[in-house]
Amino acid sequence: MTRSITILGATGSVGASTLDLIRRNCDEWRVVALTANCSAIELAKLAREFGAEIAVVGDESCLGELREALAGSGIEAAGGAKALCEAASRPVDITVGAIVGCAGLGPVMAAIEQGGTIALANKEALVSAGEVMTAAVEKHGATLLPVDSEHNAIFQCLQGGKIEDVRWITLTASGGPLRTWSQEQLENTTPAQAVAHPNWDMGAKISVDSATMMNKGLEFIEAHHLFPVGLDRLRIVVHPQSVIHSMVEYRDGSTLAQLGPSDMRVPIASCLAWPERMDTPCEPLDLPKIGELTFFEPDEERFPATRLAREAVQHGGAAPAILNAANEVAVAAFLAGHLPFTRIALTVEAILQESNMPPPPVSLDDVLDVDQAARARARAMLEVA
Ligand code: NDP
């Protein structure tokens, strides 16, 4: 029996890992929609290879190139934000949400509104829309499966357990490539150094987030929405080997952990096959070779992002969306060479502090308004376009 799938963000790192698994089992899958932002040639190549129904670019100015690259294939081509949502709302068995940033929110919400199963990698969407998204999941009877390796680990550790029996959820953090750097070194970090993650091969934005630890801050907020144990039962532990992907401690003192290689195909496969299991080509863990697993408290002096995220989610309402938007603008400015590394978190903090906090968003449009306003303030502060 074949299953149908849509991949939002098919040309990215999570998109490529997902398609690698589909390629190995292509008789079992029917690809409905594949999307990108502007990588039209790559997208067309994938759409042809997988026989997609439709290929969509978020950036409408790239639609001409996409149409040309798909000429004669019979595959529909579309462009723009509305077209992304239209493609995401086509009924499928599973949608993989792998667009980077809040740009993925509209399409993910469109998939949720169909009441389907969404394997969510796009953490910024859940961080920004929080209660709006979880309410939509409930209203439409959708199923949200976490792709993020930490949340996927927690999800697996909770199988067979009761959320009310949980004492702690521990998110592990590799600490990123700059974990042991001095403040002075951090100030002079280049984009190439920040994206050189020691364990994971990921897109540029999440790699910078890992280096600042904002990735763990976003994941803290994501965990709060996915696993409602209360903020005081969520904690972060630095674990540089990235072997334990997260842990759940129950009230009887038992701690369940999920271990695996640092390969996103493992959590993606867990979502694609859920509630069953499927094969992956990933190397099995070689624990004697790894030898040692170590753990540290996060250093919020050098890496204040986890504190900022915790404060934002404690504040609630619009604060997480503002945090996320300011971070997206600051990371883009850093990657473009316009902002020193250590000013990423400082910018986020300044935008959160200067914001006259808008009322808590209650709809998708409210979230997008908060996001746009925070972006505009961050851009003005950094004097970037
Ligand atoms: P990439 O940068 O590698 O890929 C992003 C994808 O989103 C690309 O297909 C890109 O298209 C598309 N995209 C970017 N901007 C837009 C836009 N404005 N509108 C529509 N599509 C857009 O990111 P990753 O795969 O690394 O990450 C994707 C998401 O998954 C992020 O939220 C990240 O935090 C999360 N995640 C990633 C992990 C990883 O290992 N990479 C691990 C856990 C979570 P184009 O190619 O045209 O730019």
Shape: globular
Strand content: 15-25%
Question: How many strands, what sense, and barrel or not for the largest sheet?
Answer: 7 strands, parallel
Extended strand count: 11
- The CATH topology assignment of the largest domain is Rossmann fold
* Residue windows where pLDDT falls under 50 for at least 5 positions: none
What's the rounded overall pLDDT mean? 97
Gyration radius (Cα, Å) is: 20 Å
Give the ligands present. Answer: NADPH dihydro-nicotinamide-adenine-dinucleotide phosphate
- Give the CA-CA distance, first to last residue: 49 Å
Strand order of the largest sheet: 4-3-2-1-5-6-7
Can you characterise this structure?
The protein is an alpha/beta fold. The protein folds into three domains: 3-146, NAD(P)-binding Rossmann-like Domain (Rossmann fold, 3-Layer(aba) Sandwich); 148-182 and 191-298, no CATH class; 316-385, RNA polymerase sigma factor, region 2, helix turn helix motif (Rna Polymerase Sigma Factor, Chain: A, Orthogonal Bundle), CATH 1.10.1740. It has helices spanning 13-24, 40-50, 63-70, 81-88, 105-113, 123-140, 149-157, 183-187, 191-195, 204-212, 214-226, 265-273, 287-290, 305-315, 319-335, 343-354, 364-382; strands spanning 3-8, 29-36, 54-57, 76-79, 94-97, 117-120, 143-146, 166-173, 234-238, 244-250, 255-259. Strands 4-3-2-1-5-6-7 form a seven-stranded parallel beta sheet, sandwiched between helices. A four-stranded mixed beta sheet has the order 9-8-10-11, covered by helices on one side. Strand 1 (3-8), helix 1 (13-24) and strand 2 (29-36) form a beta-alpha-beta unit. Helix 15 crosses helix 17 (364-382). It is globular, with a radius of gyration of 20 Å. The mean pLDDT is 97. Residues 9-15, 36-39, 58, 98-100, 103, 121-124, 148, 200, 202-203, 205-206, 264 line the site of NADPH dihydro-nicotinamide-adenine-dinucleotide phosphate.
